[in-house]
Amino acid sequence: MTVMTKAKNIERELSAQKTDLILAGAMQEFLEHGYAGARIDKIVEAAGVSKATVYRYFPDKEALFTALIQQMASRKELFRLQNLRSYEEEPILFLRRYATEMLENVAEDPQILTFLRIILGESGRFPELARAFVRNIEKSSLDFLSQYFSTHPKLQIADPEVTARAFIGTLIHFVLLKHVLHSGDIVPMDRDRLLESLLALIIPPPIGNS
Known about the structure:
Elements: H1 3-37, H2 40-47, H3 51-57, H4 61-76, H5 85-88, H6 91-107, H7 110-122, H8 127-151, H9 160-180, H10 191-202
Helix pairs in contact: 1-2, 1-4, 1-7, 4-8, 6-9, 8-9
């Protein structure tokens, strides 16, 4: 390895470390004050870097927030479970696991729930925040499930795209009512009951089975 290569590797590692510090500081500031109330100065202070360093990597708050959404998507795989086992498993088993893990990931992570509230609350004034969420998280999930429903050899889905939207939409609605809008007691629904009925709509049991 040449001296130049070593220097580039070190610079790359330092850049990654600084980016992580900035994003951690931004996460703290957004969670405490929301998007509109967040201040770059506070993010700089929390990250322990200079303002010039923050602006070197992220030109504005929107870029920071979008980067956090991307980080959240890659870390949690909230709405995706793209692995080889997806086609090896029986569809009903895979989809049940997909839905269960997605719901558990969201319910157990207060940061994600807070982010969802920020996105919903700020979407009127800052529509690009909502668009970043859809682009980085929901769209990839819909694309994956649409492909899954259209190509799995054991499924005969008339409209894979609509089915994917119905599947994801039901899960998101459950999360919004119970965990974001704090209204699970107003319109109660058992999670397992919801999933089993949803799966039965997509993959009807064979005629004659109870």
